[in-house]
Structure formats: C-alpha cells, structure tokens
Design brief:
- This protein is mainly beta.
- It has four domains: 94 residues, Cadherins (Immunoglobulin-like), CATH 2.60.40.60; 97 residues, Cadherins (Immunoglobulin-like); 101 residues, Cadherins (Immunoglobulin-like, Sandwich); 61 residues, Cadherins (Immunoglobulin-like).
- The chain contains two helices and 30 strands.
- The strands form nine sheets. It has a four-stranded mixed β-sheet with strand order 3-9-8-5, with no helix packed on it. A four-stranded mixed β-sheet has the order 10-16-15-12, with no helix packed on it. Strands 18-25-24-21 form a four-stranded mixed β-sheet, with no helix packed on it.
- Strand 1 and strand 2 form a beta hairpin.
- It comes from Enhydra lutris kenyoni.
- This is Protocadherin alpha-12-like.
- InterPro entries: Cadherin-like_dom (IPR002126), Cadherin-like_sf (IPR015919), Cadherin_CS (IPR020894), Cadherin_N (IPR013164), Protocadherin/Cadherin-CA (IPR050174).
C-alpha cells in the first residue's frame, strides 16, 4: 500500500511505501479481561482507564477513544468513570464460530501525546445452545432378515457451544428391538448407532417409532430430540457394501469447478435388479453456499460443484448411500472426508487507524506519526506478514502488538 500526502504550495511531499513480506513480529497485550457471552447491557468488564494508568480527568481532553475492527459497538467505555462495559449482545458462536479461543481486541488511543494501548477481552462460552438435530424425523430402512447385532448409523445432533457445553450424550426411548451404541470417530466426535437385539418380522411389526434424545454437558443440561422412524422391509437380503466405510481426499482450494473428488465403488452379492446400485449423497457437512458436491448415480463418481475456499471451510464430510434396485431396496453407507489445503490466495491488507498530519519540521525524534495494522486472511505461513518502509526516509516502524505498528520519526526533519 502506498500513502501520499501533499500540502499547500511549496510544501514538501511525503511518500511512504509499505512492503508486505512473509513473517510477523509478536507484540504484547497490555491489559486482559474476560466476559461471558450474552452478558446484559451495562455489565462491568474492567476499570480500563485505571488499569492503563490514565487519570479520569484526562480522558476527554486527550480524546480517549477505543477502536475495535469489526466489533465496534460490542463494548464501550464510560468516560466519566473509566469503566469498560458491555454495550450490546455478544454471541460467542457468531463472533468466533467453532474456534476454541475467542477474544475481542481493543485498540485504545489517546492524544497529547499520542499513545496506543492494546486490550484483549476474552469471551467465555456459556451453555446457551441446546443440541439440535438437522431434521425432526429420521427415516431408517431395515430388512426383516437383518441378523442380530446389525448396526444402523443415525445422524447425530450438533451443538454450537464449545468445550464441555458441546459434549453430547444420547439415550434411546424404551423398545424391545434396539439398543444404542455410541461410535467415537477419529476427530473425537461421536455418532449414535442402532444395534438390533431382537429379530424383526415385517408381517408382525411393519414400522417402529423410537425417540432419540441428545443431552449436552453444560450446567444446566440442555436437550434435543428426534423421532426415529424405522420401516421394516421385506427380503432383498443383501445390502450394497463399499470397499471401505470411510475415505479421505486432500484437495487444494480454488481447484476448477467440476474437479473429480473420488470414484466410489460398492458391490452387492445379489443377482438381477437386486444387485444394480444407485449412488446418492445423503448429507454434506458443513453446509456451504459456495461449494457443493455432486455424485453420478450410475458410476459413484463425486465432483465439485462450486468453489473450494479454505477460508470458508477447511474440511467437508460427505455421507454417501449406495441403494440397490431390489424391491424393497437396501442401502450401504460410507463417508468421504475432503480436506482442503490452503493456497496463498489473499493479499495482505493495510489499515491506517490514526494519522497525525502535517508533520512539523521541528517535531522531536520519536514522535508517533501514524498507527498502522496489517492482516492476511490466509493461514499458517501464508497468513504471516511483516511491514517495512522504503529506504532513506526519516521514519521507522515500531511493532506494538502482533501485526500492529507505529510510524515514528527516526531523525530530524529539515523542510528547507
């Protein structure tokens, strides 16, 4: 980014170039507070003026102000008593999504002389979200010839909270046919499964309705439930089976629309139409408006429909069904995990949050001219930036906090 200032006739022209490279210097946070999400308006957060060593009487004369990128109205400071308080509703899930750490960074600025302080306010999670099932009813098709101890995967609930508040347990309503088993996946998430404990007879019981309830680990506990509708099917006695229950594919973001993800294959030992298979996608998580996946129902080939964007989602789970054409049909299941790798596809951004112009030629060395922040939406090394000036200018950059800098006068100015 290039910043240029031109004064009146005869005034010198100042031209600064900010070059963005690949490594940043860490800063330090001067004050740290915490506040629970959903705290009421006016909730006390901290005595920010006192903790920053500022006198109450100087807040107004020194133009005390607080800047917070993207979260301007969540927190405010009472200039009469120097107290930082909650100004509007703070929703941790809306603010930080599924991130384990969630904080609001405040940049406190005062003039005469110009000073900047950095304050971080950690947003604590509360148990304000119950477990939620995607649909009110889940349909399960089970053959009457299914052997005892057969397993039937169910769609689990999700909880927008974090930590213990999002740890889910499940219980199954009373019935004589099924028990519940919990499967722990590699990513530590859990999914419920039905396990058949008593043989089925379609002529005796053509349909079962069982309530599945999920409970989170918060205090107090919150619950959600879904109705499991089980249809007992007449014998087409072999379900399609995939080569493996799960597959993993790694793709770079921004691959062309229509790129092939994977070729799936399921087989059915039955004969005739009972072994003919149609493939379909049962569920894609997380839901994305930018990127979808499509499957060829005849071949099982999955392709991208849309755009893979690492900054939106770095992982997708595709649940696939293979259904034979018998009467009644039977289904096999597998999961395809798509991992998205980051590319350096976002340019760094520079923001000047405060600027003191014009600069007097008798300004003292060390005078702060501007406050600058740089950021990059990429992750890892692609998202690390540094800030530097063009050579041979009477200024220097001083790192104040992570990717925040002060532009400071480095040597005496001579207008003539």
């Amino acid at each position: 980014m290039v910043f240029s200032w031109r004064g009146g006739p005869g005034a010198p022209r100042l031209l600064l170039s900010l070059l963005l490279l690949a490594v940043g210097e860490p800063g330090s946070c001067q004050v740290h507070y915490s506040v629970p999400e959903e705290a009421k308006h006016g909730t006390f957060v901290g005595r920010i003026a006192q903790d920053l060593g500022l006198e109450l009487a100087e807040l107004v004369p020194r133009l005390f102000r607080v800047a917070s990128k993207g979260h301007r109205d969540l927190l405010e400071v009472n200039l009469q008593n120097g107290i930082l308080f909650v100004n509007s509703r703070i929703d941790r899930e809306e603010l930080c999504g599924r991130s384990a750490d969630c904080s609001i960074h405040l940049e406190v600025i005062v003039d005469r002389p110009l000073q900047v302080f950095h304050v971080e306010v950690e947003v604590k999670d509360i148990n304000d979200n119950p477990p939620v099932f995607r649909e009110e009813e889940q349909k399960v098709l089970i053959s009457e010839s299914a052997p005892l101890d057969s397993h039937f995967p169910l769609e689990g609930a999700s909880d927008a909270d974090m930590g213990v508040n999002s740890l889910l347990t499940y219980r199954l309503g009373l019935n004589e046919y099924f028990t519940l088993k919990i499967i722990t996946k590699n990513d530590k998430s859990i999914l419920p499964e039905l396990v058949l404990r008593k043989s089925l007879d379609r002529e005796e019981t053509p349909e079962l309705n069982i309530l599945l309830t999920s409970q989170d680990g918060g205090k107090p506990e919150l619950t959600g439930s879904v109705q499991i509708k089980i249809s007992i099917l007449d014998v087409n006695d072999n379900a399609p089976e995939f080569d493996k229950p799960g597959y993993k594919v790694v793709l770079f973001e921004n691959v062309p629309n229509g790129t092939r993800v994977i070729q799936l294959n399921a087989s059915d030992p039955d004969e005739g139409v009972n072994r003919e298979i149609s493939y379909g996608i049962r569920l894609i998580l997380p839901v994305s408006e930018k990127c979808m996946f499509s499957i060829n129902p005849e071949t099982g080939e999955i392709r991208i429909y849309g755009k893979l964007d690492f900054e939106e989602n770095n992982e997708y789970e595709i649940q696939v069904n293979a259904i034979d054409k018998g009467i009644p049909s039977m289904a096999g299941h597998c999961t395809v995990l798509v991992e998205v790798l980051d590319l350096n596809d976002n340019t760094p951004e520079v923001m000047i949050t405060s600027l003191s112009l014009p600069v007097r030629e008798d300004a003292q060395v060390g005078t702060v001219i501007a406050l600058i922040s740089v950021s990059d939406r990429d992750s890892g090394a692609n998202g690390q930036v540094t800030c530097s000036l063009t050579p041979h200018v009477p200024f220097t950059l001083v790192s104040t906090f992570k990717n925040y800098y002060s532009l400071v006068l480095d040597s005496a100015l001579d207008r003539e």
